[in-house]
Amino acid sequence: MVTVQDRPLVAVFSLGGTIASTNARGTDGVTPRLGAEELLAGVPGLDDFAKLEPVAFRRTASGDLTFDDLAALAAEIGARFEAGAAGAVVVQGTDTIEETSFVLDLLVSAPNPVVVTGAMRNPTLAGPDGPANLRAAVRVAASSEARGLGALVVLNDEVHAARFVAKTHTSSPAAFRSAPAGPVGWLVEDRLRFAVRTERLPGVPLPAGPVPPVALLTMSLGEGDRLIGQVGALGYAGLVVESFGGGHVPSWTVPALERLAATIPVVLASRTGGGDILQATYGFPGSERELIARGLIPAGFLNGPKARILLSLLLANGAGIDEVRTVFADI
Ligand code: ASP
């Protein structure tokens, strides 16, 4: 008979978020209160998949997580893998999952599955989705099929690649979408099916020191160049521009972007939420062709927040403009 001792070991890290949020008597609103052990205790049937190692790592709203927290988490996940864990689950707030999962995708080099999950409905509401999401995440993290795919995000019985996924709704349990590719897999009756197998992206070493600040600026109708002009003076080490469409900005902002791109890396992403930055289609002033010719670096399929993550981690490892350009060329 297979006992729980024979199951793969999965480390479960709790960081807070809606999934862990309840209210204390006499207070307004829910706040993160539950740790990994309490969260796991509320999920039936986990022994079927894994032996669990709960780790209460942080207890916060996910908007307060930092690069330092995530570098420490990546190091701790790596240490647990070396000590024998087959997979890891990270349980946190959904607001920043699209960024934190991508940080882990880049920083955790082992092939063991790293699965990030959370919940859209907190435990005080009718129909909280946390227990089902946590159960599905453990199922995926314990699976040998999930090895070598990079970090995954599991919610609503769907499996998403960290590099593609984004939160697209403020409250729906179906908030997570992967616009460029769709989910890479799904679960049904505890069966896990992968429709797509992603190859690992080249990783980035764990930062040895602080991660330099990188700004993210979304273009909008009639935007001027005042903010762009301030980026260098404010001490930012890089800029990601979320442009219109396939890589377009108001023509009058181009000189300021070109000046900045000569001094710090300026990456060109799209505000559309899906699709690659164009490289060779439009020739009007402010087009992608003009911006790339003037030194901006196309973000490939990465959305603005994810491009900012990659740029930040490259800068933290001492990359200059040319190295940043080379890395993004493969995205
Ligand atoms: N609304 C958030 C969540 O879904 C709060 C957070 O991200 O911490 O968990």
UniProtKB/TrEMBL annotation:
L-asparaginase N-terminal domain mapped to chain residues: 10-195
Source species, domain of life: Bacteria
Residues reported in the UniProt entry to bind substrate: 62, 94-95
UniProt keyword Hydrolase, yes or no: yes
Active site location: 18
Protein name (Swiss-Prot/TrEMBL): Asparaginase
Alphabetic keyword roster: Hydrolase
SMART domains: Asparaginase
GO annotation (BP), single: asparagine metabolic process
Record domain Asparaginase/glutaminase C-terminal: where: 214-328
Gene Ontology MF term list: asparaginase activity
